[in-house]
Each structure stands twice: as C-alpha cells, then as structure tokens.
Amino acid sequence: MSDLLERLRGRGWRMTAQRRVVAEVLDGEHVHLTADEVLARATARLPEISRATVYNTLGELVSLGEVIEVATIGRAKRYDPNAHRPHQHLTCSGCGTIRDVHPLGDPLDELPATERFGFSVSGAEVTYRGVCPECAGS
C-alpha cells in the first residue's frame, strides 16, 4: 500500500473506488501531475471516473493537507503527494519538469529578523528554476 493510501486510511478517509484510484495515481517519490494528467491516468484504471470526481478529490486531498498544490509560472498547477516530507522544488523552465529537492539548511534561517516585519513566520516555500539536461541538450 502506498504512503498516501496509508495516511488516508489512518485519517479514516472514506475510501471509495474513485478516491482510491486518484490516490494510487498520485503515489510516488517525484510525482507532480496536473489535474488533467491525474484524470487521464485514473480513467485508464477506472473508465467510469468523472472529471468532477477527480478535481473534487484533488481539492479534498489539498484541504486535508495530504497533497500539496504546486503552482508554476505560466503552467497548470501540479499535485505533490509528498506533503509530509519537508522539501523544496526544482523546476525546468523549458519542459516544466518538477523534482523534489532537499537543500541543506532551513529556508526560514535565510530570512533575517529585520525582514520579517513582525511576522511570526511558520514556513517557507522555495522554488529553484533552471533547465533540465534534456532541454539543455536541445
């Protein structure tokens, strides 16, 4: 059973066939699929699943904090099931590939107290941008 499925079962999330398929599609280390990619893969496994069910399930998983919605400049949002493993993202500006990365240090330490404007900072999202080897070679 996948990590995501185990977490959802542990929360007592009602596991319908449709929800299970969406969770299975999202399973993996560097999975960052768009909603349409989730729909296509879910439909291949369960042809009767609807677009609305997939989109609603993704929204519910994000609301539960079990999946992270990753926004990229000029591209569709992507969904990352590694919500409970601290990481940042590395994005290719050519093809849009996203990889999970684990830089050394805490990004919160990089923000000096003078730049916090009195905020009690609880988190940071860092996105590294560049060009992947495939796009660099073309």
Helix content: 25-40%
How many strands in all? Answer: 6
Number of helices: 5
Give the C-alpha Rg. 17 Å
* Biggest beta-sheet profile: 3 strands, antiparallel
> What's the SSE pattern?
HHEHHEEEEEH
Low-confidence stretches: none
Shape: globular
Whole-number mean pLDDT:
90
Strand content: 15-25%
Give a short synopsis of this structure.
By secondary structure, the chain is an alpha+beta fold. It has helices at residues 3-10, 17-26, 35-45, 51-64, 133-136, and strands at residues 33-34, 68-70, 78-80, 88-92, 98-101, 127-130. Strand 4 and strand 5 (98-101) form a beta hairpin.
Question: What would your notes on this structure say?
Answer:
Helices cover 34% and strands 15% of the residues. With 138 residues, it is α+β, with helices and mostly antiparallel strands. A three-stranded antiparallel β-sheet has the order 1-3-2. Strands 5-4-6 form a three-stranded mixed β-sheet, with no helix packed on it.
